[in-house]
Design brief:
Blueprint lengths: L13 H11 L14 E6 L5 H12 L3 E6 H4 L7 H11 E7 L3 H10 L4 E5 L5 H14 L7 E5 L4 H12 L3 E5 L8 H8 L4 E5 L2 H5 L4 E4 L11 H7 L7 H4 L7 E4 L11 H4 L6 H23 L1
Parallel strand pairs: 1-2, 1-3, 3-4, 5-6, 5-8, 6-7, 8-9
Length: 301
């Protein structure tokens, strides 16, 4: 059986994702120890709160031993090549997971590893976040295929993975970003080929209309600090406010992958209000990670 890696949501079928979500819903007390006696290498080039804690606990809940390593400790392509590191670590561990700057890093790891490689975030995608998002939306809003999901803000790695997930399940995905921050024509074509119903716009009011769930993210991601002032100007009219949320469906929910900057990309009134699912969404990072790990190990054994 070939090794399965989690690099992008679009690499999987709807059935695969359904299996991961089903495993995520299994109570911890009933989890089989698929990682018993195995380590999981957790490599972090980028700082993390939710990802580190959720992944470490998911590994423990599956009977494994997480080994956290900072980027400067392993020194990918500095102390040794990505390929050498992945080949060696795959002899020690049952899974390698990496939170990196460049997506090509996890792609190279997957080609050199004998065990599953998990993308804990790259500049291209954030599949673990989407698994948590889909799990949360289905818990609180209904089947993804029946939902209209709006994204307001930068079309970044989180937005890309979310769009892949919603479209894979046949839902309606509405993306709204300033012109130079949205998906280009090639990316729009790629997303449409996944399925579902895609709409791309530059008008937040039009995008949020009829939405069941509204997502956003920080305007300035790690590594973009030099663009802070320019981005704040460019995104000023894309803030998620109560007024904007009022244009969505009655009972529409708000989601944010965090960390958040209250009164920048979203007002505190929305973020901390009754529409917000951000805490449940954050908690589901652990459950969805557990489901993904269980699926990958089972499929690769």
């Amino acid at each position: 059986m070939s090794v399965r890696h989690l690099l992008n949501i679009a690499d999987f079928t709807q059935g695969d994702i359904r299996q991961m979500l089903a495993l995520a819903r299994v109570p911890v007390a009933e989890c089989n120890s698929v990682l018993a006696g195995k380590g999981v290498a957790l490599i972090f080039e980028k700082a993390s709160n939710r990802t580190r804690h959720s992944m470490e606990m998911a590994v423990v809940q599956l009977g494994g031993h997480p080994v956290y390593t900072r980027g400067e400790e392993i020194g990918l392509d500095v102390r040794e090549s990505v390929e050498d590191a992945a080949a060696i670590l795959s002899g020690y561990h049952g899974v390698i997971a990496a939170r990196v700057f460049a997506h090509e890093t996890v792609a190279r790891m997957s080609r050199a590893s004998m065990v599953p490689v998990v993308n804990m975030l790259s500049d291209w995608s954030h599949p673990l976040q989407t698994l948590a998002d889909v799990l949360t939306m289905e818990q609180h809003c209904g089947p993804i295929g029946d939902l209209t999901v709006a994204w307001v803000g930068d079309y970044n790695n989180v937005a890309r993975s979310l769009a892949e997930g919603v479209l894979l399940f046949g839902g309606k995905m509405k993306i709204c970003a300033p012109a130079k921050y949205g998906p280009d024509k090639q990316e729009i074509t790629r997303l449409k080929n996944i399925g579902g119903n895609l709409q791309v716009d530059n008008d937040p009011s039009n995008t949020v209309a009829e939405a069941d769930v509204v997502h956003t993210d920080t305007w300035i991601s790690m590594g973009q600090e030099k663009e802070t002032e320019r981005r704040r100007m460019d995104f000023a009219s894309f803030r998620v406010t109560e007024e904007l949320m009022s244009l969505a469906q009655p009972g529409a929910k708000f989601m944010h992958c965090m960390p958040a900057h209250r009164d920048e990309e979203v007002t505190a009134e929305v973020f901390d209000g009754p529409r917000s699912l951000v805490i449940a969404q954050g908690h589901n990072r652990m459950h969805s990670a557990r489901g993904a790990l269980a699926f990958l190990v089972r499929e690769s054994s």
